[in-house]
C-alpha cells in the first residue's frame, strides 16, 4: 500500500507525544528528528523536508501549544495541517473553459499512465459533469499507441479522433479541434507522445501542440512509484510547458510517497487527480487533507 512505511513511522512518533500533558522543547526536538528521517526515507525532497521540519518546529514551540491543556494533540494537529499544506492545502479542480470545448493536453514520460488517465478522465467528466468528451490520438511514434487509445475509447464508449501515424501532432490537433466544434464535443483530451527520457524533439513537438490547441489544462501525468525522479520530470516539463495540473498515477501501488509529498512544493503546481487502479473508474480528485489523515492514521 502507498505510504506504508511513512505512515507507520509517523504514527509511531505521534503515539509517543499524543497523551503528553506537558511537551518540552526537547520532546519536540526528538519528535522532529524522527519526522525528518521518516520523510527522507519516504524519498521526500530534502529541501522540502528541511522547510517542513522548520515550519512544524516553529509552530510546535509556539505559545499555543505550550500553554494548551492537550499539547500532545496540538502538536499532532500541526503536523497534520502542515502535511496537508505540503500537498496543496485543498483540492484544486480541473480548469474548464467558459466557451466549449474545454481542451486538456496530457503530457508525461512513456509509461507514466497518460493514455490510461486520458480514458479515465474522459469517463469521469462524462459521469460527473455530463460532458461529451473526445479523445485525440497524438502519439504517432509508439507503434501500438493509437490502437491502445482506441481500445480505451471502446471500453468506455468514447470516440477517438485519429489521422493515423503519418500526420504531425500539431496538424492532428488542429483538425481534431475543428471536428470537436462541428460535432459539439465539449471536452477534448489530447493524448501526446511520451519518451523514456525528456528530449528536445519531444518538447518542441509538445510546444507546437500547445500553441495550436491553447489548452485550458496541461495535465502532467507522473508515476508516483518513481519518487524523486517524478519530481525532476515534473520540473522539466513545467519549465518547458508551464503545466497547470498534475495527475499522480499508481498510488494504489506501494510507493513510499516522496513524489506526492514533494511535487507541489517543488513545482508550485497542484496535484489535481490521483490514479488509484488500472481500471477506467480508478481516477479520483486529489484531496490533500484526506491524504494527510490517511498517512497519520
Ligand atoms: P503512457 O505510456 O503514459 O500512455 O502510459 P499507459 O497509460 O500506457 O500506462 C502504463 C501502464 O501503467 C499501464 O499498464 C497502465 O495500466 C498502468 N497504469 C496507469 N495508471 C495506473 C494507476 O493509477 N494504477 C495502476 N496500478 N496502474 C496504472
UniProtKB/TrEMBL annotation:
The keyword Manganese does not apply. Residues 270-283 form the SRP54-type proteins GTP-binding domain. It is found in: Cytoplasm. One of its GO terms (cellular component) is signal recognition particle. One of its GO terms (molecular function) is 7S RNA binding. The keyword Metal-binding does not apply. It catalyses: GTP + H2O = GDP + phosphate + H(+). Keywords: Cytoplasm, GTP-binding, Hydrolase, Nucleotide-binding, Ribonucleoprotein, RNA-binding, Signal recognition particle. Its main location: cytoplasm. Its EC number is 3.6.5.4. One of its GO terms (biological process) is SRP-dependent cotranslational protein targeting to membrane. GTP binds at residues 108-115, 191-195, 249-252. Involved in targeting and insertion of nascent membrane proteins into the cytoplasmic membrane. Binds to the hydrophobic signal sequence of the ribosome-nascent chain (RNC) as it emerges from the ribosomes. The SRP-RNC complex is then targeted to the cytoplasmic membrane where it interacts with the SRP receptor FtsY. Composed of three domains: the N-terminal N domain, which is responsible for interactions with the ribosome, the central G domain, which binds GTP, and the C-terminal M domain, which binds the RNA and the signal sequence of the RNC. Belongs to the GTP-binding SRP family. SRP54 subfamily. Part of the signal recognition particle protein translocation system, which is composed of SRP and FtsY. This is Signal recognition particle protein. The chain holds residues 1 to 297 of 450 of the full protein.
Amino acid at each position: 500500500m502507498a505510504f506504508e512505511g511513512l505512515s507507520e513511522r509517523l504514527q509511531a512518533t505521534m503515539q509517543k507525544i499524543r497523551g503528553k500533558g506537558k511537551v518540552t522543547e526537547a520532546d519536540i526536538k526528538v519528535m522532529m528528528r524522527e519526522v525528518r528521517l521518516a520523510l527522507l526515507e519516504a524519498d521526500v525532497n530534502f529541501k522540502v523536508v528541511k522547510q517542513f521540519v522548520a515550519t512544524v518546529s516553529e509552530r510546535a514551540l509556539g505559545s499555543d501549544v505550550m500553554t494548551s491543556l492537550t499539547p500532545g494533540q496540538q502538536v499532532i494537529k500541526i503536523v497534520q495541517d502542515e502535511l496537508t499544506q505540503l500537498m496543496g492545502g485543498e483540492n484544486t479542480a480541473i480548469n474548464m473553459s467558459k466557451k466549449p470545448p474545454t481542451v486538456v493536453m496530457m503530457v508525461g514520460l512513456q509509461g507514466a499512465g497518460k493514455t490510461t488517465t486520458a480514458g479515465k478522465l474522459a469517463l469521469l467528466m462524462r459521469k460527473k459533469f455530463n460532458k461529451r468528451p473526445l479523445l485525440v490520438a497524438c502519439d504517432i511514434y509508439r507503434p501500438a499507441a493509437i490502437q491502445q487509445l482506441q481500445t480505451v475509447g471502446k471500453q468506455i464508449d468514447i470516440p477517438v479522433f485519429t489521422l493515423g501515424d503519418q500526420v504531425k501532432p500539431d496538424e492532428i490537433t488542429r483538425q481534431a479541434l475543428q471536428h470537436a466544434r462541428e460535432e459539439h464535443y465539449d471536452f477534448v483530451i489530447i493524448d501526446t507522445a511520451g519518451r523514456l527520457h525528456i528530449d528536445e524533439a519531444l518538447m518542441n513537438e509538445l510546444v507546437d501542440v500547445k500553441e495550436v490547441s491553447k489548452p485550458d489544462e496541461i495535465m502532467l501525468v507522473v508515476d508516483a512509484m518513481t519518487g524523486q525522479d517524478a519530481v525532476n520530470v515534473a520540473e522539466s516539463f513545467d519549465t518547458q510547458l508551464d503545466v497547470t495540473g498534475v495527475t499522480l498515477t499508481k498510488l494504489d501501488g506501494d510507493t513510499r510517497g516522496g513524489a506526492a509529498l514533494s511535487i507541489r512544493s517543488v513545482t508550485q503546481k497542484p496535484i489535481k487527480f490521483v490514479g488509484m487502479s488500472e481500471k477506467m473508474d480508478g481516477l479520483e480528485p486529489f484531496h490533500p487533507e484526506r491524504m494527510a489523515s490517511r498517512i497519520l492514521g
